Amino acid sequence: MSEHYGKVALIGLGLIASSMAWAMKRAGMATEIRGYARSAETRETARRLGFCDVICDSAEDAVADADLVVLATPVGVMGRVAETIAPHLKPGATVTDVGSVKRTVIEEVSPYLPETVHFVPAHPMAGTEHSGPDAGFASLFDNRWCLIVPVENAPEDAVARLERYWQALGANTERMDPEHHDLVCAVVSHIPHLIAYTMVGVADDLSRVSDQEVIKFSAAGFRDFTRIAASDPTMWRDVFLTNKGATLEILGRFTEELFALQRAIRTGDGEQLHAYFTRTRAIRRGILQAGQDTDKPDFGRIEVKR
Ligand SMILES: NC(=O)c1ccc[n+]([C@@H]2O[C@H](COP(=O)([O-])OP(=O)(O)OC[C@H]3O[C@@H](n4cnc5c(N)ncnc54)[C@H](O)[C@@H]3O)[C@@H](O)[C@H]2O)c1
Ligand SMILES: O=C(O)C(=O)C[C@]1(C(=O)O)C=C[C@@H](O)C=C1
């Protein structure tokens, strides 16, 4: 049916897994999609929605005979899931994950996997603030990046096959090493989420003394900026606990910049504020080209760019 994988097992049936299943169905890619989630309610919803051919009541049943096994749970439980499924994996199968953090997932999953399977971690840079099996849709990955993070000594054909698989789901792929992945994601995804969550907390705190005015009058800026603060708390708790090093590093840089701006406001340094906003607006608009600018953005200086 396809050059990709015959039988695919999805472990965890939320936004990402259900979107993968819908995208596979759209592309006619798998002979059979089997799914498992920990909660009976999620499994029931998935059965009703019909994005899997079979919903199993155990992870072991889901992975038996699968050519591709996708770990699509919160990152904090992926090691335990790997331990559970390991004895039931088909020799020659590829195991992948979609976790937002890579170094810790590799460290926690790899030790359990038998040498007869290939582990090829991946991370689609696509999502929404919604979660659960009914949040998925087939076009989620269209024209978005999927980062492929091969472990040491991963066979080239297994890695290339997973790349072709993600491309068939609609994504563009790029390979990255785990440390660089975790630093890039801390900058472009993890810390922005932390700041959005914090801003909502601050607004809520203020609203108690101003009769809900902050919420009531929040216009597009607040709404756009804090959309991602509606994201799943379990997922984001696990991201920060498993990407401690990179998120603390970027948070440190962020607070330094914030303190500099705070000082500029306090001292009335309009020139500094204007210069800062001019520079960052230019970056945001993509005017500064990598390699051509002499005044690189701060994340250039901390070597997020190779
Ligand atoms: N949401 C995003 O924007 C996004 C984007 C890219 C990658 N990711 C990553 O993808 C993964 C899944 O995220 P999501 O948004 O689909 O989450 P989700 O909350 O929508 O779904 C998670 C699923 O995992 C299941 N689950 C939890 N613990 C389990 C266990 N022990 N065994 C089996 N199933 C279990 C839940 O029942 C649920 O079905 C996470 O690792 C996340 O970091 C998320
Ligand atoms: O668009 C959103 O709602 C997302 O939060 C998606 C987003 C991101 O930060 O870009 C969130 C986490 C992922 O690991 C990848 C993508």
Brief descriptors of the model:
306 residues, 6-phosphogluconate dehydrogenase C-terminal fold, 2 domains, 6-stranded parallel beta sheet, 13 helices, 9 strands, globular, binds prephenic acid, EC 1.3.1.12
Strand and helix order: EHEHEHEHEHEEEHEHHHHHHH
Characterize the overall form.
globular
Q: What are the distinct ligands in this entry?
A: nicotinamide-adenine-dinucleotide, prephenic acid
* Strand adjacency order, main sheet: 3-2-1-4-5-6
Describe the protein's topology.
Layout: E1 7-11, H1 15-27, E2 32-36, H2 40-49, E3 54-55, H3 59-63, E4 68-71, H4 78-85, E5 94-97, H5 103-109, E6 118-119, E7 122-124, E8 145-148, H6 156-168, E9 172-175, H7 178-209, H8 213-216, H9 220-226, H10 233-242, H11 244-267, H12 270-284, H13 298-301
Parallel strand pairs: 1-2, 1-4, 2-3, 4-5, 5-6, 8-9
Antiparallel strand pairs: 7-8
Helix pairs in contact: 4-5, 7-11
This protein binds nicotinamide-adenine-dinucleotide and prephenic acid.
Domain Prephenate/arogenate dehydrogenase: 6-295
Pfam families: PDH_C, PDH_N
Keywords: Amino-acid biosynthesis, Aromatic amino acid biosynthesis, NAD, Oxidoreductase, Tyrosine biosynthesis
